[in-house]
Amino acid sequence: MPHRLNVLMIGHTCSPLRGSEPGGVWNWAAHMAEFHRVSLICHPQYRQEYEEMPIAKRPRDLEIHWTSLPRVIDPWDCNRDERGLRLHYLLWLRVALRVARALHRARRFDIVHQVGLGTVSAPSPFWRIGPPLIWGPIGGGQVAPAEFRRYFGQAWTSEWLRSRRVAALRYSTALRRSAARSSMILVTNRDTMEIVTRMAATDVRYFLDSGTPNFWLRSEPPVVRTATGCTLIWWGRLEAHKGLPIALEALAQTRDSDSRLLVAGAGRMRAEWEELATRLPLRDRVQFLGQVPREQLRDLAAHCDAFVFTSLRESFGSTVLEAMAAGLPVIALDHHGVGQFLSDEAGFKAPVTTPDETIAALARAIDRFSSLGESARTRLARAAWRQAAAHTWPARASQMGAWYEATIQADKGEGVRVQEAGINR
After folding, report:
1. Residues 247, 340 within the same domain
2. Which residues pair with 139 in a beta bridge?
3. Could you tell me if 174 and 244 lie in one domain?
4. What is the pLDDT of residues 252-274, one digit of tens each?
5. What are 18-70's pLDDT values in tens digits?
6. Number of domains within the chain
7. In terms of domains, do 24 and 133 share one?
8. Is there a single domain that holds both residue 108 and residue 184?
9. How far apart, in whole angstroms, are the C-alpha atoms of residue 192 and residue 190?
10. Is the separation of the CB atoms in 33 and 217 below 8 Å?
11. pTM metric for this prediction
């Protein structure tokens, strides 16, 4: 990279020990700090985990500014659950903006990058600071297909309300300003792309909200040494929108009665979904493992043949990258982020139409994979592994650094044109 920039990052939570949003924010900040001077604004929920990190392992050019709301007005208790999180985040953004403005007066940042929470439903206010803003990666524009509402049970009411909130974004003046004033917006799926482009965004690009963890990435391309049987694995939180019953119903329709499914994860839907597996009946073909530690899950994946992903509403899905990094082909629903990202060389995708048609298509995909020999499975596994290897955090940081430089140069050019026209910005 040509020279070190002064970068302001905003993420909501940050932890070097976690995945999802806290881990994503940490990886952005830590990897970009290898090339630039990074100031990060985030909430102190996981501050202790960072401070227990040996000083020698902390990035030298990363400075974290822990920013919280006054407890008296904060509707969210970060030590309990996510109730009140949405309102908390909207209020937190206002406080973070004040902190960002004060930091900019002292540091004079070259560029601002908001990396979390990555949702289009909470418009970024950080274009107000002055330097060019890169917003994202963001998702949140995807909604669960109404035809599949039976899989949500009592959770469908909140899911329907979320869908209405997403539909109402077209009327959001705050989103329109954020989209129009952002120098670049990174999105994880087509649904979110459509929303921000309708809002007059000028530079919108696809970019995953997840990076491939080194922990999961195999050191060498996988080789399938035997193709006897078909052991599938599904892992994630056992929540309604994750759609595990679709995989169970598809497995019940497969011609290959020897195909089996391992389910790793915990959540409130476990008892109901175990009962469904018994009714189908799949008791001998499905095993619920509960929460599996990460190290054991990686070892378990090495003895499976393919990963099944059935989320009915997902920005992308970090578990997909984990599975591909482990050398597993993916059998997934063809929508939202995974439909956009997963190549045909790395797995099979079932179209999302009606439940009956989608389940039948997923069953055919499982049968198709089960019938493959060693060489065909190896080709799929290697394609999945290569795709995951292209999204390591160092590779993502290198790409982002190039976009920083290009965005700053474009902003300087725009400033020159504005001055020549005699217009005050």
Report:
1. yes
2. 119
3. no
4. 999 988 899 999 999 999 999 99
5. 888 899 999 999 999 999 999 999 999 999 999 999 999 999 999 999 999 99
6. 2
7. yes
8. yes
9. 5
10. no
11. 0.90
